[in-house]
Amino acid sequence: MTHSRHPLPRREPGPLPAVRPSVVLAATVFAGVWLGWPWFVFNAFALGLEDKRRLAKRLAVGLAGATALAFVVVALPEPGDMAPSLVGLVMDEPRPFTWIPYVIIALIGWKSATAYLLFEDQRRSAEVYEYYGGTLRNGLPLVAAGAFLRSWILIELLPVGWWTLVLA
Amino acid sequence: MTNDPHIQRRLQRALDRIEHADLDGAVDLLQELLATDPDVVEAHALLALCFIDLRSLGPARVEAETAIALDGDCALAHHAMGDVCLAEGKFEIAAQHLDMTLALEPGNAVHYERMATLERLRGRPYRDWIERALELDPNDPEILAAASYERFTAGDIGEARRCADEALALNPECDDALLAKARVLLSEGDTADAREHVVAALRCNAMNEEALRLLVAVRARKNPLLGAWMKWSVWMETMHEGRRIAWLVGLMVGSLLLAQIFRDLGWDTAAVVVRTAWLGFVAYTWVSPVAFHRMLKRELEDVHLDDDY
Fold first, then answer.
1. Contact B266/A91, CB-based, under 8 Å?
2. How far is residue A113's CA from residue A126's CA, in Å, rounded to a whole number?
3. Interface pTM (ipTM) of the complex?
4. Does residue B59 belong to the interface with chain A, where contact is any CB pair within 8 Å?
5. N or C: more exposed end of chain A, with fewer CB within 10 A?
6. What is the pLDDT of residue A85?
């Protein structure tokens, strides 16, 4: 270990409005990635997050994984085109089977895991931000508005495509 | 260590508050001190120790880092950083800082007790560290309480009781000593006395994890169903926010997957039950902490300590 004798710079709260990272995580869950992930970026600057490179890496990996899974969903055949599944045959009740719902669940899991890591990165920074006198704003009205406008933004405002699965 | 008698008096007042479990009061005093003298290393280190107990690890780390930056040869600063790393589960870095405290102050029993804690958390034998701490200071109630725990886990209940009694005789308000005694009493089947001791410890710090666990054990002896619910509540309550959210996200994805598997098997009713159960669980996580805190408050109000306590 190395030791130095110097005064540490005090981290003063910045001018941007910051919120509790759990609120941004809630925005990702209830409104979608279109609101949650850009908000994580904004909040990182508002909280003065030191390791922004890690934030960029997490977002890049998160988006790449979500895009890949969305492509898989789009590429998979529809249930109507499928032969009866093995499970259906075993149950003596042939039903069309598709992997689409499972890949969508994997996509939800992937996006949730990415949002969780982004939240974890900002949790400690938010404590330190408050410690130095910063006030965390109430972000819940924005979460509620995002959840309310979710369908309109994803289906009406934007053209529907594989990216809808990524942004939802 | 600062030589200014005025600063030393203020640090001593903060230490007294910490010993009486008034952590918020200690934080206020230390922050007042740092407002006028921002370079008092011991104040930064003590603040870090207070924040660890208040479960604010972000500020705790900032204060410990500040203390070490101000004086890298201050044992208390390394002690604080070691405790921050222990709380964060970074045992290797904690070991480096605790080694440093031993190198700087080889005669201070507290540092050996912290090494014992580190080894205990790592799942390694730690009796030698406790013995060394006891040799250096046989009259420290916290070290005696740690020794009681070590004897207890080794199955030597008689010695565990003796250490706990000695610790309580030295400081009847020491929460570690109260819990050490409660553990012994519970193992002997004396749930009423064990409950008194646990509640006394909870009155010092209502979120003392070990006290909550022992309270659950006491309750479970009388009512296994209530004990099971309390065990679950304590587990959720004492978990870090991040880990709790990871669990909830995992459960959400798991319930979606299970419901889909049931749907594919043609068990649509089972799929509906899984989805409803998940929604019910989400609603429960909103209500549960309130119910648990009410129960805890009633527990603290209901127990009256005996005259001979």
1. yes
2. 20
3. 0.74
4. yes
5. N
6. 55
